[in-house]
Design a protein that fits this description.
The complex is a heterodimer of chains A (280) and B (611). Chain A is of the alpha+beta class. Helices cover 28% and strands 14% of the residues of chain A. Chain A has 10 helices and 11 strands. The longest helix of chain A is centred in the middle third of the chain and has 15 residues, at 175-189. Chain B is α+β, with helices and mostly antiparallel strands and 611 residues long. Chain B has a 6-stranded mixed beta sheet, sandwiched between helices. Chain B has a 6-stranded mixed beta sheet with strand order 8-7-12-9-10-11. In chain B, a hairpin with a 7-residue loop joins strand 4 (75-80) and strand 5 (88-93). In chain B, helix 9 (303-309) packs parallel to helix 11 and helix 17 packs across helix 22 (572-580). The A-B interface holds A 30-32, 34, 37-38, 40-41, 44-51, 64, 66-69, 71, 134, 163-164, 166-167 and B 67-68, 100, 103, 125, 154-156, 179, 203-206, 220, 228, 269-272, 274-277, 279, 283.
């Protein structure tokens, strides 16, 4: 796998290395948000707002209106990219891409630099802040997002959101089979798929019955490692201040020495030719 | 340790109390049982239902809002019934409100006193405040919900509120929450009498189950027993089809015809309760006719269909009116049985335009029924005021033979279906308090999970033998389901594992390891508390078969059950039910041995003394 997707981020294997994917069928979804609550249930998250992504709400169903009150619904969460930008920009390599699909943040390692939050083309990551926790003392400032239930996957179980869906709008399986199912279903409903190509493709594939715009889902090109939007000011602040702590800076420095080639995209994302070279 | 919020609306004082400690909590669990226990101790026997002395206790149960199970959604409001004025009143609701009351940090709310001006209670993460409700007073339940959510600035806030019917003390006014959900049978009148428009809740707390892994397993088994609803299933005439009867012309015909015409052109969206895969609640966008484009929000059941079928309305006009009645906040059978008598009296020349405000009460006229709903909710005119009072009061005021045409039980109204051909359901309706939706209903065979101790059946639908015991048993397991915070519509006792999976979910949450026998005892305890509440206020079991609207006991007028009535087996059916549930057949008082067996010795003074 590491050869296939380059070496811009850490990779790993959970069980058998066979890629999996989540299928979200918008033509079946009724907007009940049982998947959203199930995600909170499995991860013991407090009942913080279900209308915004946060460090304790890793999945939203859009639009942000009461359950059932829209004719069209879209899932908004991590797409578990094949080429995860979030992982590529992480200076402390806290984010791992697993061969089975999940892109997972190691909370022990994350220093809360926010690079991944700015970089994700879908805005699927959130920083732990006062809006997402019950008490101020619990704020960590670290990034969080959907893990594709990698803990359950290790036991060969489906993600909990998929288990919870009462109308079979969510499915999970080997990526090859899910891609095939998605394509077939899209043809049945006269629609299209989404997520299989965007940003180089991911492990969450949507079936859309209507046009993409109807669901207000972002248009993302199929280009791998799209240009990220980490503010220059943030990078400069990191270089010149003690933001994110000395320990974090030491780890970032050490990793920069070990993997210097990973610095280029992180700090020079618009250097397109070089980027394509890395992906070989 | 769970908490209860106690609110005195007169003084505006609010304080937290702990839930009772074990062993008391283990006896009553939550919901109806715990709330009734509180009222038995605190509500003055001389209090009138809509006095400021009166009180409402709203309780969740241990499985409300834990997630990981279906059906864990219930909040139950308990009070002295304004319908019967001497028995227990109860309204239980699902959806999300109970879940978020718990998330706000409370297992229940006790409300006493009367606010000086229209107010609403806002509970946000353990902090409660009383706020001015002038902005929403007079509004329907849908607008109230939207406006209050906007006012508190929290999209996730959940609202339990009353409509104009509650404000105007319609005796069966409902509490309405989360659009699709109602705690019917008079809680709305209690709120209105206290100038309380709504309770808005939001919080982030998560109830911690004792054993999460075990709960996931039990919840998943429970889910397998469900029979999820479908949008297609919402396009027929509802539960009456299963009963074999649809009410027509004030229970004077049961024939099923084109009642559901046009439903096939509607757009139906299922809108399930919190984490429940039974998928009962639904929204409809009417697709044809005069009300095309109107959106309605409904829960499980189909009482609101039969409500308007009974008045000669059919098709999508019924769904339009059903949305109206829920927005106004009137319990549907209360309205239908009252309006049914009025229409019949008009037809038979006993009621004239002088009493109806000039409206001709012609069967099947949607505009007329729409107008009557408005008049009822606002107690407008002679007719509106009496429709608000109730069918028995209206029939009495009309005079002549009208009292013979009325359907009621102890001045309350049965759930709005024509149950008359069925022993189990009729017995359930008769022995209920009259101030609530009945519990039980029996079955032809014992639930598979109870076959270790129950070997009877199948019962015969034409023979009363065995039905009283079937009712006792069903009432016990339904009561248990309710008091733990579970929803009957997610309870499938007729399926293998239908009771055990629920029980195991409860055990995983509480760590108490009840057996099925102990669970049924807990349900039995709740039944006894329910009748003790009536006993303290002068109720006797004889009323169950004597104080019944005659139309309810008339032989079925037509159709495949023509001529059937359970009346010929009364009062013996009722007597046997009381004997089998450990109460005296005439007084309904529990026997001393029953109280002792269930650990209710503290109520010994209310037992049957000469058993």
């Amino acid at each position: 796998m590491s050869e296939k997707i380059g070496s811009l981020f850490p990779t790993g294997k959970l069980i058998d290395g066979k890629p999996r994917a989540i299928l979200f069928d918008a033509s079946k979804c009724i907007g009940c948000r049982q998947c959203v609550h199930a995600c909170k249930d499995w991860n013991d998250h407090p009942r913080t707002t279900i209308y915004d992504l946060s460090s304790t709400n890793w999945l939203t169903m859009e639009p942000p209106v009461l359950e059932g009150l829209s004719p069209h619904w879209a899932r908004n969460s991590c797409m578990h990219c094949e080429f995860p930008v979030c992982a590529a920009v992480c200076p402390v390599e806290a984010i791992t891409k697993y061969e089975e699909g999940p892109v997972v943040i190691n909370q022990e390692v994350c220093i809360g630099c926010e690079y991944c939050i700015y970089a994700c083309p879908w805005g699927a990551l959130s920083q732990d802040d006062i809006r997402s926790v019950v008490s101020k003392d619990e704020v960590t400032g670290k990034a969080a997002k959907c893990t594709m239930c990698n803990d359950r996957l290790k036991e060969n179980k489906k993600p909990f959101c998929v288990e919870a869906c009462p109308v079979e709008a969510l499915d999970f399986g080997l990526k090859e089979e899910i891609s095939e199912k998605a394509g077939k279903r899209a043809r049945e409903v006269g629609g299209s798929t989404y997520g299989a190509e965007e940003a180089g493709g991911g492990h969450v594939i949507y079936v859309l019955k209507e046009k993409r715009e109807t669901y207000e889902i972002r248009r993302i090109s199929s280009e791998k490692y799209p240009r990220h939007r980490i503010p220059l000011s943030l990078m400069i602040k990191d270089l010149l201040t003690l933001r994110c702590g000395l320990k974090g800076k030491m780890r970032a420095l050490k990793l920069a020495l070990i993997h210097p080639h990973r610095l280029l995209y992180r700090y020079w994302p618009w250097w397109r030719d070089r980027r394509s070279a890395w992906q070989k | 340790m769970g908490k209860i919020l106690r609110v005195d609306l007169t003084s505006g004082s609010m304080r937290d109390e702990n839930l009772p400690e074990e062993p008391l909590l283990k006896k009553f669990l939550g919901g109806q049982a715990l709330a009734t226990y509180i009222l038995l101790h605190e509500l003055s026997p001389t209090a009138r239902p809509l006095d400021s002395q009166s009180m409402v206790a709203i309780m969740t149960g241990p499985i409300t809002g834990t997630g990981l199970t279906p059906g864990g959604t219930k909040a139950t409001a308990i009070y002295l019934s304004p319908l019967t004025e001497h028995t227990l009143g109860r309204g239980a609701t699902s959806g999300f409100w109970g879940v978020y009351l718990k998330a706000a940090g409370y297992d229940g709310v006790i409300i006493t006193g009367k606010a000086a001006r229209p107010s609403y209670l806002f509970i946000h993460d353990g902090k409660a405040s009383l706020r001015d409700a002038a902005k929403v007073w007079g509004k329907g339940t849908r607008a109230t919900e939207d406006l209050l959510r906007e006012e508190v600035g929290l999209k996730d806030a959940k609202v339990l509120c009353i409509g104009p019917a509650g404000e105007n003390l319609v005796r069966a006014a409902m509490l309405v929450n989360d659009y699709n959900h109602t705690a019917a049978h008079s809680g709305g009148a209690l709120f209105g009498s206290k100038n309380l428009k709504a309770i808005v809740v939001y919080g982030t707390a998560r109830p911690k189950p004792h054993d999460k892994a075990r709960l996931i397993d039990a919840g998943s088994r429970w889910r397998k027993t469900l029979n999820p609803r479908t949008p297609e299933g919402k396009k027929d005439a509802g539960h009456g089809l299963h009963l074999g009867t649809l009410p027509n012309l004030n229970f004077r015909s049961t024939l099923i015809a084109d009642h559901a015409r046009g439903f096939d052109q509607d757009r139906v969206t299922l809108r399930p309760c919190f984490q429940c895969q039974q998928l009962c609640p639904w929204d409809v966008e009417i697709g044809e006719g005069a009300h095309r484009g109107v959106v309605g929000h409904f829960n499980a059941g189909s009482e609101w269909l039969d409500t308007f079928f009974n008045l000669g309305i059919k098709g999508n006009d019924v769904l339009y009116l059903a949305e109206r009645i829920n927005d106004l906040g009137i319990e549907c059978s209360h309205f239908s049985f009252g309006a049914g008598v009025a229409f019949e009296a008009w037809e038979k020349g006993l009621l004239g335009a002088d009493k109806t405000g000039g409206i001709a009460l012609e069967w099947g006229n949607t505009d007329t029924v729409d107008r009557l709903l408005e008049m009822t909710a606002h107690r407008e005119g002679w007719l509106g005021n009496l429709l608000a009072e109730g069918p028995a009061q209206l029939a009495e005021a009309i005079g002549g033979d009208a009292p013979k045409w009325v359907v009621h039980t102890k001045k309350g109204t049965p759930a709005m279906h024509d149950w008359r051909p069925h022993f189990g359901q009729m017995l359930r309706e008769l022995v209920a308090s009259g101030g609530m939706k009945p519990q039980g209903g029996g079955s032809e065979k014992p639930p598979p999970d109870l076959r270790y101790r129950e070997t009877w059946g199948p019962l015969n639908r034409d023979d009363p033998t065995g039905w009283p015991w079937s009712q006792v048993l069903a009432e016990q397991h339904r009561q248990f389901c309710g008091i733990i915070g579970g929803c009957w519509f997610a309870l499938a006792p007729h399926k293998p594992d239908g009771l055990n999976s629920v029980l195991d979910s409860f055990n995983a949450i509480t760590g108490w390891n009840f057996t099925l026998d102990e669970a049924l005892d807990a349900g039995h305890r709740s039944m006894i508390l329910q009748s003790l509440f009536g006993t303290q206020r002068g109720w006797t079991a004889e009323e169950d078969w004597k104080d019944v609207g005659p139309r309810f006991l008339e032989p079925v007028p037509d159709g495949k059950y023509k001529g059937f009535t359970i009346a010929k087996w009364l009062p013996e059916l009722v007597y046997e039910y009381y004997r089998l549930s450990g109460r005296h057949e005439h007084t309904g008082r529990p026997l001393k041995s029953t109280l002792a067996r269930l650990g209710l010795e503290e109520f010994m003074e209310w037992s049957q003394h000469d058993e």
